[in-house]
Structures
1.
Amino acid sequence: MLSCQARRTKRAAASTAGNANKEAKRFIEETTGPDRPRVYRNAVVLAVPSREGLEIARDRIRDYLRWEEVRNMLKGQQVDPLRAELLSAYTEGAKKKIAEAVRQAYCLAVTVSERNEILAYKLTVGTEPLFNIIKADPRVRIQETAISAEALLPEGPYNLWREGETARRVKDLVGAFAQFPHLPKMLRRKEILETLILGVKQGIFVLRNVRPDRSVRTIWREEPPEADLKDPGLELVLPEAATLSELLPDLLTPGMLPGLWPDPPEIAVRDVVAYFRGGNVVQVPREGYTEPVVIPKAEPEVVYAAIAEAVKAGKLWLTTDAASVFAEEIPAGILTDNAKLQPPPSPVPVTAVLPDNLPAAWPGPETTALGIAAALSQKTGKSLPWVTVREAIDGAIKARLLEKTIDSGPWPCDFGGARRVKFRVPTEEVAPPSEPPPLPPKPGFKVARAELRPHQIQDLADIVGQLVNATVGYNLVFKLQLELGGAGTALPDEVVRKVNELLGAIAADYKLE
């Protein structure tokens, strides 16, 4: 139930189309009193009754109360059943009209217009929920869908940046939609924040967080951590004014950053450093057109650190005239501006290290790991990284295509030990273990051997009598070996137990072992 004060407030807020009541305006302009003005006025939308609708609702209530009064007056009296039924129908009908009248009464939406005026907009009320009707009215300017990150730029339609401004606090940008009337009324604050995050991941913005020790952390083209998003001092910076404190190594791989890699993909370290010189503008293809995008600045040390991480993680391959580094730490002095970066090398097939496919590495029946590495590099025209060569040799050893010699050094090894590791092609085939040959028969005995299937055992049982008759006077012995298995797994104990029970009925010592 509404309190008397709440009911009085609702009655006092009743307005007419185009003209908001003083009480409705006060609710939008103030919080608890005239000395506490409301800052986020654009986030407030009021549903108030119209004066005409309120009068109609009062009339409906009066009609209902009249019929209730008639009912009370007739209590204890003998009433004709037909008249009693009519009275009940009139009373219920009047009661139902109250709800419809109240629904129709709340037909005004009071809010701040785009020109910062508090206006009351007439709504067409139906059976749909009132909130949905208010959202659907374009004059109220409630936006339920997400906005584009480009719209938040200084040249965008929302005019969120002051002239010369290059950074703004994230909380201020998110709150601007609830504060300034020229902006749409966003239904959910979360969607504004997600739009900013999307802009950071697309490279349109840079997030900057100044730590208590005054050190700076930036986030660009990656998902911001939840802890940073909750920091009230987090800033959104335009890329032309940002200096990156760190660079995600994955961004340096081909296809990640527009305009960084040429075709075919090979780039000098100096070109990567120049890409982040600051003020670099690249063209990004869109749907049927290109759009300029500014690349933020990063100091050379930051770029070198990202390259080193990418090479160590196996995302990039670094080469110089004398070195080839991939999936390992770059030795000191190798990462220079003249070094080249490439995508990871393709794996070398294990058969590519054999004498028939790599004769330059095999001066004789033996070779070294260093010889294989040098020949593979000569064949491909590039100095292959030791990791790639080592994986190829290791695969050939596992496939038994290569083996170490007796005087070989230890394997696997680093590049420094490659000259001491010797290999050869295996020359002897290892024969699979065979069954021992059968024992020769005793003197004067002859032996018949054969592998019999179950149905052949039954055939043998049918002729046992004939064999006995044909060998009267001689020692006839059956030595039967039963083998069970071949399913690829160990025999279950239950199967072995059942078979041994059946065999034990023939001879006590006849069982599977």
Note: The mean pLDDT is 89.
2.
Amino acid sequence: MTDKALVYRLRLQEPVLVAQAQAGEENSAVGLDYIPGSSVRGVLVARYLEAQRGAGAAAGDLMTDAVARRLFFDGDVRYLNAYPDRGGKRMLPRPLSWMTEKDRAGEPEGTLFDLALADPGLEQAKPPSNADFCTTDIPDTSSSDDGDGVKPRSVLDGVRREVAVHIGLRQANVRTELNDVYRYVALAAGQVFQGAIVGPEADLIAVQRLMAPAPTVYLGTARTAGYGRAELDDITLQAWEEYTPGHPFEGLVVVTLLSDAILRNPQGHVDADLDGALGRLVGVPELRSERRFHKTHSVGGFNRAWGLPLPQNWALAAGSVSVYKASEVDAGALRAALAAGIGERRIEGFGRVAVNWHTAAQREFHRPIAEAQVMPIVEEPESLELARLMVQRRLERLLERGLSKAVGQATFSSLPPNSQLSRVRLAAQRALHDGSLVELAAYLQALKKTRRQRGQFERARINNEPALDWLEARVGRQDVEDLLPEGGRMPSLAGEKASLDSDLKALFTARLIDGVMRKAIRSNQERGVDR
């Protein structure tokens, strides 16, 4: 549905920290991966008050100001989230139903399968890594390939973050153990985000007057620590569509959240029942989704006037997908009913919904490469050798970190005696010495032939999986690439790419088994069942 919108870009001059509700420990703040509409609205409210004071008007209650109410509170003007800008397009949250093959999750290009529309029969489906946002290069024109065999394409990308540690001094220039340490994970400077404000044209012109004179804005928290400065740019009032609908897929209606949605049932309780909310909206009380890909999390906010956080609520996460039969709900009626969004806090960009936005069962994807990531190709043999050495060392460091994390997160139940665990550990240590998993595999086969020991390892659980199955899977698959972050992407430098060869796989498989067995033995000891 075409609407009038004030479209703008935010160029981050400093890191921006708009903390999300689930920020972790007390002295940590983990920022959102977008600029929320509430932050932009807050900036413009402050400018409106400043303009009123500059005109000699008394700074009264905004809720008694008819113009302020119309621009910021009544709901006709809605401040949508600013998402990453790629190629002049405002990216949108990637649908949670988009999956790819596990070994392609971190690749720069490949095929996406929309599980909301069809089951491709993937053995191991995984969402693409570092790809929370997407754009559509070629709109969906049919439910399958066109006559030339060209699938729809999408650009996938994520945001860059900056991690910094700050020390709060109890006394100026005095560092002691009592000082507070803060860890901030913020949006990195240098990125560009695109936002939109939708509403009546006359109101948008008034908002544009507030935005245009001063391009510099400050967003989020920790501003005195060098966070929050951004530049407003390319502010234009235009006809605008948040997404381009595709053709229906085989009698289905696909509903996708383009931002978090806070839903409340008729009893006044916050819930995640999108079926019920949509059914009440279009008069179909028994509306039930065929398939759904939902995620919930807590959302909050901050009222700068009060100096207090807003109450936290559960929300359906952006990218959540529900699929309905077209015979039960009309897509056109649903799209019209959802034009202004759904749920609460829609003024701040919550509750944006797309109907039949992605309607292709398969599509190709690629990732843009930033200029800073483009490395020159090196031809000198000495430089090539140095690059190979550097990427291999980087790979090994990543594997070390992943190994430590995997061992630390291992869980157990009904463990065998420590004598049996120690024998498995000894076999793993021999594999480390020999550089081969042959003897370890042979030991597991022998263990299966002994009824008592086999029963103990089959009853035991490692990560909620039978311990014997877990051990055999590790030895058989040697899937140490799962230890790598970002979907197993190999480090590369100057055209050289790290290699995860068989020796390295055997080494880290043996170390993983050794570490997990060591932790299991300690677990027995801590529970007083050291046998």
Note: DSSP finds eleven helices and 32 strands in the chain.
